[in-house]
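Researcher: Batch entry, complex prediction.
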Amino acid sequence: MIVYLDADYRCYVTQGENRVAVDADYFNGKCPAFIEGYQFVPEGETWVREDGETFRGEMIAPWKPWEELDTAQRAYERELAETLSAENAALLSDMAQLVEEVYQSDMEMMGI
Amino acid sequence: MGTAFLYGNGGSGGTGATLTITAPAGCTVTVSKDGKTKTKTAGTDGLAVFKGLSTGEWTVTITDGSQQASKTVTVTADYATSITFFTATINVTYPAGSKCTVTDGVTTLTAPDTSGTWECVVPNAGTWTARESAKGFSDSVSINSSGDFAELDVTKLWLYKNGDSRTDNTGGWNAAGWTSNYPLTAGVLASDRIKMYGTVGKETLLATDKKVDLSGVTTLFVDFNVMSNQSNNTYALLLNSAKGNYQNTKYGYVATSSIGVQKLSLPINGKDSAYISMVVGGNVNLKVDVFRIWAE
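Model: Structure tokens for the complex:
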């Protein structure tokens, strides 16, 4: 998916001033809170940390505490699962209703 | 090079113990305790005998004018020890401001200051381990012969070093308990490197057997050589929250397809422990030798 990088290679899910768009498969299926806790240095590029340490891409690493990002992602996946489950239940109910209507119609036609 | 043996005899007649020291013929042998010193010259048979010594801790010193060796022994009814003209130097690098010791399990030496560098002279062969006081990092080296020179660096949390799997920190390196979206094979532990070589149709993986304690470190490093590559296959160093499918449990990684001797680094933020793993893609032309992995 497309993420947007600032000058420190921190990730954002929305465009913004001086942010560069990159394609990063690692973030497929990840929620915004998870993505925006990460840095992504593309291959061929280099980030220099404030202590002088150099990091060469391709590199992906969280800059926020991992537990915080993992908690956010799990909550997102739970909510997604609940939503999908509710939609699935509604679809099944609609299908059952359709089947009942067809059955009743068939019974009428047969004079039963 | 000589050996000094001390024999203590319980006094069945007369006062004090008798020490018999074997040393290089002709060298000067001195025993001292509480400011009292006795000196003899080792005979052609290498023996120097001291009688009437009180029980307690004695320092035995031998010298031939150009070299010297010392040993502390406790005199009891029966005892023995050895002293040799043996010196080897270990250059120790440790965090400035912290204390540092070097030990072989019998003798412990302490750095004279907290400067961060120490030219440590050890008195015998063996495995010598340096440890620093700030974070408890350690490093070991084997000294085999007098005159040997070695280097130890305890500013780093070593995870792999030129053939040493650092099982104290890693539990060892293997592929047990790991899977991938593709068939998996294990990297190879050679005598002085890890061989991460590509295999057709499989990914090659090697990982720490246990979670590494990363408290107190901020960056993971790896020294390696990509000897050959094809089609931009990559070598990756990863942080994993758990074993299992490494694709699902990875939470950080650095990867390269560049050829040559190089070093990669990966920031470690906000997680006190993790599995460290390495993966290469399934191309037989991808050959990576890994020499050192550490954290600072």
